[in-house]
Amino acid sequence: MELLLMSDTHVPARARGLPAELLERVPRADVVIHAGDWTDTATLDLLQQRARRLVAVYGNNDGPRLRARLPEVAYAELGGLRFAVVHETGPARGREQRCATRFPDVDVLVFGHSHIPWDTTAGDRLRLLNPGSPTDRRRQPYCTYMTARAATGRLTEVRLHRLAAAPGPPGGF
């Protein structure tokens, strides 16, 4: 099962749209995961139309229209693994233990908010993944997203992809 992970797209505030490279991957992925901070319903509509399956949540910058359509936390079984998706997990310090306590029955937690890519394991059980942002790199050298494979209860080929800068917002910054 091919997974495509993204978060913090912030369209149209930070970019006119999703990068072409990312959009090309959407219909090829078995599951697209978005960890919140869309800021527009058009991007949600686009991914719902193009993705085979979308697992998504709202983020702190998402207004009532997105919150009405998306949960704060999403759960899915993918490739024999129990996934949870949430936007915020709190400060980096203590994240693994905090998330292991909050999500005791989960194998993989996908989160966003910081725009900082993250791949760690809490103990020997919970894998924590933050794909960064494909449109707003903030203090990071690149915009990013992740891909992975889930099968027979294992997560493999987790890869962070670097992107060229996304098209800027209308009117510039």
TrEMBL record:
Record InterPro entries: Calcineurin-like_PHP_lpxH (IPR024654), Metallo-depent_PP-like (IPR029052), Phosphodiesterase_MJ0936/Vps29 (IPR000979)
Gene3D superfamilies: 3.60.21.10
Keyword entries, A-Z: Metal-binding
Pfam families cross-referenced by the UniProt entry: Metallophos_2 (PF12850)
The enzyme's E.C. designation: 3.1.4.-
Domain annotation Calcineurin-like phosphoesterase: ranges: 1-149
Cofactor(s) it depends on: a divalent metal cation
Family: Belongs to the metallophosphoesterase superfamily. YfcE family.
Protein name: Phosphoesterase
Source organism of the structure: Streptomyces katrae
